[in-house]
Amino acid sequence: MQEHEISTNPKASEAHSGLPLTDMPSPDPATLRLILITVATTLFLASTGNTIVTTALPKIVSDLGGLAHISWVVTAYLLASTVGAPIAGKLGDMYGRKIVLQSAIGVFLFGGLLCGIAPTLETLIAGRFVQGLGGGALIVVSMAVVADVLPPRERGRAQGTLSSVFGFSTVVGPLIGGALVQAVSWHWIFFVNFPVGIAAFVILSRTLKPQADRVPHKMDFVGSALLLILLSTCVLIANLAGTVYAWSSLPVLFLLVLAPMALVGFISAERRAAEPVMPLDLFRIRNFQAANSVNFLVGMAMFGTIAFMPMFLQIVKHVDPVRSGLYLVAMMTGLIGTSFVAGRFISATGRYKILPTLSTAILTLGMLLMTTIGPDTPMPLITLYLFLVGIGIGPTMSVGIVSIQASIPRQHLGVGTASANMFRLIGGSIGTSVFGAIFTMGLGTHVQPLMPRVREVRELTSSMVDQLDPATQAAVLQGFSDALSPIFMVGAAVAAVACLASTRLIEMPLGPSASSPRRGQETPAE
Q1: How does it sit in the membrane (predicted)?
Q2: Which of 213, 275, 459, 494 falls between 20 and 30 A from 190, CA-CA?
């Protein structure tokens, strides 16, 4: 299959000028199709790695114990993928995407092996951290490959498809995990990735060329370490403060002091580094600022909705756990559909600025409608609201990456692409934490007085509610809805700010479509 090889070296096909290209030839259709299928497969592999474990957590606890630390099975993966993504993106810029993707697949599968054979919960958490390092690298570097093999005008369609894969995996992952737990055992949710990972490794080895140039590079180890510390503290504060530990506790205070120190140290290190892991000049580019502001804010709304809607459906609407997850399909259908349509629109017109503004306006409307749901709200209406939320999220994912890739110097494509995922995940972590604190306060106000014997009202279940007398039961269900309403109100405010932030995007020329006989202009420097 030598004829299918194509270089993913950012410098191989151009005399590097420091500017992004707007006119570059697409590979032949057969090669392109094979590359995109492989990239989509690796993205699916990584994104399902985060969600497939959720439905297996009860069984894992019954086998390994450690209920108090079970949340770390999810948090460890999220933390590792967040901190590993920008470093992997930088390595891809320096040494080529192929070697980084191959290494990331190896790390991901090794982490999965550790998880699959884990005799203790601590080993499982360590394996999830290793798996997250590989998964975060796979997500960002696979998306950067698209920018290496396609001209900017054609990237919209491909990035829309990849964003659809990401949304699809969010729904499919828990379903696959639940099916494997019931049919075999929870160990197989980690082993099932091996055939897919090995197949992706083989195809990548035969379709992508290694970096052609042998330019020596100097890795920014100090900046990488400080960025890792900074992102880790942000994610840990979001996941631990106010829930596992009180805000006034020593661990949280230590993290609150460490975060600004790491930020100052990181900025200082990046100013002096020969090849900074996250070049500060990128933050001066308007589209980089605007797109990642939208990514951060939409991440808050997206992950907050995913985290709390199943709980509402199970307790207030008496929907079983599996069906409560399936109702999120409505949200993901809107996300996948509009992400795909947005990609097609970008490739057909070369325009993208209007898309995130319209979609975040719809997201604001959807979140406002979510504030109205309660015990008497018909399920079809809730499904419609979730669908609107998905419509509001979808275009921002593909447009964010396309606008960043079209605006930054080509030698920073990897780290620029990584930034989109990084800001979205950090937004999701912080959003889930903030929404969780709001929800806890709401439960204390609206539900706790009705159930004084229940110490941990956050652990309220539908069976507990069913045992109440009808009058108290109705009041508790309404109180639960009232506790959730402020979450969606804050989500609507966040979405409105994202809508305003999206108006700062500059419509950079993307060049002609692949079918156009004319050659486009190069994107001007910003």
Answers
A1: Multi-pass membrane protein
A2: 459
